[in-house]
Amino acid sequence: MNDLVAAQRQFGTGPLSRVAAIVYRLIVVELLLLACVLPGLVPALLLARDASNLPLYAVCAIPLGPALSAALYAIGQHRPDLTDLNPAVDFWHGYRANLGPVLRIWLPLLAGLTIVAVNLAYFGAAGVPSWWAALLVLIAVTAAVWGGNALVITSVFAFRTRDVARLAAYFLTRTPGAALGVLALLVVAAGITAYASEAVLALAGSVLALLLLRTTRPMTSAIEKEFTQ
Questions:
Q1: Whole-angstrom distance, CA of residue 112 vs CA of residue 173
Q2: What is the pLDDT of residues 135-152, one digit of tens each?
Q3: 52 is in which domain, residue-wise?
Q4: Which of 56, 90, 132, 219 could form a cystine bridge with 77, CB 3.0-4.6 A?
Q5: Which long-range contacts link 138-144 to residues 24+ away (Cβ below 8 Å)?
């Protein structure tokens, strides 16, 4: 009996099983992520890449926030045991639980970034000093990194929106390595979109979510230790 129990414990916890477990979770999460962003992805692929369509691109990106949050939650619930896999259950639980909180962060962020992008696209017609463009870029980059932090915090923890906003801003300087990591992932995502398409970016969604979780681990560890105990 002891040998049987030992064998059962060994199954599903070895190195190969751990790799299989995370690959399986990423595949399932990717499929569910694609299903959730499809209503926005299809119209985005049909839009011409023109500055006049920036507001429409923002509307198409609305489903991305809740879907990415659900992916972050589901991947964050991963356990390296092949016999204990419920990625679909975790994904939908995260989607339902975080839908409202994520939209309260995601919609203002999209609106703000769209305003900045439109201003930059038509910067020459505005007749303002050139340093204003650099300031707008700095604002956009800071807001995007802040949004990445806020999305992770909302997906992993249950804080009020105003507390999420404060923590996301606080950890921009508290954990600069994590902030730079988020910025690097945003650059990669922008590069994939610019040189390939939104569809290719969507196909890499679960992997990017995993990398975002790993990158922001210093932030989430500090929050768990200092603000949840």
A1: 21
A2: 999 999 999 999 999 999
A3: 2-227
A4: 90
A5: 140/113, 140/116, 141/183, 142/172, 143/109, 143/112, 143/113, 143/116, 144/109, 144/113, 144/183, 144/186
A 10 A CB-CB count for 76 gives: 16
How confident is the model at residue 11, as a pLDDT?
46
CB of 148 closer than 8 Å to CB of 204 = no
Tokens 């650059």 locate to: 187
Tally of domains in the chain: 1
What would you measure as the largest C-alpha separation in the chain, in angstroms? 81
> Looking at residue 102, what is its pLDDT?
97
Look at residue 200 in the predicted model and tell me its pLDDT: 92
Give Cβ neighbours of residue 107 (< 8 Å, ≥ 6 apart).
Answer: 62, 65
Residues 18, 23, 24: CA angle, nearest 5 degrees: 95
pTM for this one? Answer: 0.90
